[in-house]
Write a structure and sequence with these properties.
With 512 residues, this protein is mainly α. Helix 2 packs antiparallel against helix 8, helix 10 runs antiparallel to helix 11 and helix 12 crosses helix 13.
């Protein structure tokens, strides 16, 4: 299959999967929040955050495994692929036992950690902690099979499985909550559908990678050292991600109570979905970036870096700029007027994510491509600590509430992006001034022009209805298309883009 057709197929699958997620999120989230209530939903969010920390016990092996599978498949070394997978599976089994034990400890001390959780919700919350921990174990075990599908660039199978699990989970959620179920029933639905998805991923991985063999005898200490050599820095990076995103939820729950968590989790949910749509584009280029780095193909790496950054930014800019301007309108229509504060929180979170996502491929180049995960991890953990400290100061000292939490996330994220871009340019032998002139400056100009356009649209179109929101978003998107064409891409790039677009459309028509 041609490279253009492969990218077209993968992008089509990624967007279809993301579209399904957006539709389910849009329809299901208000139902879940209003069915459970602010307090119970806040408890659910806190439990998910706490159990997310338990995932750190795998010491970055999951992310390291993805890098090594793609690397060895790129080299055609099937024996090494089987060896790293078998070693990782053994690690995940041990980690699962640790996770379950830790979840029991957390459940016992839950009421002491979060004194503002109502006493009548504590028994259910303790059971949910254990069930969600089981769900985390299942996700660890299925990671190997999902990584195989990714490395083989079979995104259509990966996302088909994810969509099937999503639909089953949505159906189960509606059924249990409609019949008066609560947190425990919701957690059981999560576990059951995740297990089904893991089984499906295993069967598909055996289909796309025929040499797959998993066994205890294939595991080796040398492979474990190999995985941990990269994984320890991935672990630090994962810790940083938890500090940046999920510690905010824990702080809010401890200081203000679980009900207030809901008001922050709504804009945070939108941020995660905005990130997801952008990472769909970046993930399609990920395996190719790792393979090119393994072969030291710097010309292709520079091409992927420039075009990939622009491709991701062309998705990120309209999404996050419209979050900034139209976010309050959307949240009040979607969730209700009482959640309008989420629109202000969304502005600060969207600014930080826009800066980060316009340079998202820097992490893939530095960490996965050249194996310098320690650089990304080191900067990430410093950013996470700064995030934590600044958030606590703004919340406890300056009494800024949810706005302080959002600012505590925004400022460090913007500050720590620049070093990563510089390092990535050095690794691929690209002049930093060339990157700034070809990528950063055009993207900044396009973002500012779209921001001004959306501000004007918001002043003119004042209908506080779904029709008004769709009209504003549609006009904003129409405004961005010529901006992207004229500002983001240079003349020779527009010619190349038109040629690739023509080939991609032909490839999509053949796929469909």
């Amino acid at each position: 299959m041609s490279r253009a057709r492969t990218y077209a197929r993968n992008l089509l699958a990624s967007w279809a999967g993301f579209g399904a997620n957006v539709v389910v999120m849009f329809l299901l989230s208000p139902f879940i929040v209003h069915s459970l209530g602010n307090t119970a939903y806040g408890v659910w969010t806190i439990v998910m955050s706490l159990t997310g920390y338990l995932g750190l016990v795998e010491m970055g092996v999951r992310l390291s495994l993805g890098r090594h599978i793609a690397y060895y498949i790129g080299l055609g070394d099937d024996d090494s692929v089987n060896a790293v997978i078998s070693t990782a599976m053994l690690v995940f089994v041990v980690c699962g036992i640790v996770i379950l034990v830790a979840s029991v400890v957390i459940a016992i001390f839950l009421s002491s950690l979060f004194i503002k959780i109502p006493p009548d919700l504590i028994p259910s919350a303790r059971i949910v902690v254990f069930i969600v921990a089981c769900n985390l174990w299942v996700s660890l075990l299925s990671a190997s099979f999902n990584q195989i599908l990714t490395a083989r660039e079979r995104f259509e199978l990966l996302h088909a499985t994810a969509v099937a699990v999503l639909l089953l989970r949505a159906l189960g959620t509606v059924v249990v909550l409609s019949r008066g179920g609560g947190l425990i029933h919701l957690a059981c639905v999560q576990l059951a559908t995740s297990t089904a998805g893991a089984v499906c991923a295993y069967l598909l991985s055996r289909r796309v990678f025929r040499p797959l063999r998993i066994g205890r005898r294939l595991a080796a200490w040398s492979r474990l050292r190999e995985l941990l050599g990269y994984g320890i820095w991935a672990f630090i990076g994962n810790t940083a991600e938890m500090l940046i995103y999920w510690t905010d939820v824990v702080i809010i729950g401890a200081v203000f109570g679980p009900a207030i968590v809901t008001f922050y989790s709504i804009p945070l949910m939108l941020i995660h979905y905005g990130n997801a749509v952008c990472f769909q584009v970046a993930s399609v280029l990920g395996p190719r970036t790792v393979a090119a780095a393994a072969r030291k193909e710097f010309t292709e790496l520079r091409w992927l870096f420039v075009w990939g950054s622009k491709a991701v930014a062309c998705v990120a800019i309209p999404v996050f700029v419209m979050y900034m301007v139209f976010g309050t309108h959307f949240i009040t229509l979607w969730m209700g007027q009482q959640y309008a504060i989420g629109g202000t929180v969304l502005v600060y979170l969207a600014i930080s994510q826009l800066v980060r996502l316009c340079a998202v491929l820097t992490r893939s180049v530095i960490a996965s491509g050249f194996g310098h995960a320690r650089i990304v991890a080191g900067l990430g953990i410093v950013q996470g600590v700064c995030n934590l400290i600044l958030t606590l100061v703004l919340v406890l000292q300056f009494r800024m509430g949810l706005i302080g939490v959002a600012l505590g996330t925004m400022v460090p994220m913007i500050v720590f992006e620049a070093p990563l871009v510089f390092i990535a340019c050095r690794l691929i032998h690209m002049n930093i001034h060339k990157y700034l002139w070809q990528v950063a400056v055009p993207l900044a100009i396009a973002s500012m022009l779209l921001l001004l356009a959306c501000w004007g649209i918001n002043r003119i179109v004042t209908y506080q209805t779904w029709g008004g929101f769709v009209l504003k978003a549609g006009i904003g998107l129409v405004c961005f298309l010529p901006l992207a064409w004229a500002v983001v891409f240079r003349r020779e790039e527009r010619t190349t883009l038109a040629h690739h677009a023509k080939n991609a459309m032909a490839a999509i028509s053949r796929v469909m």
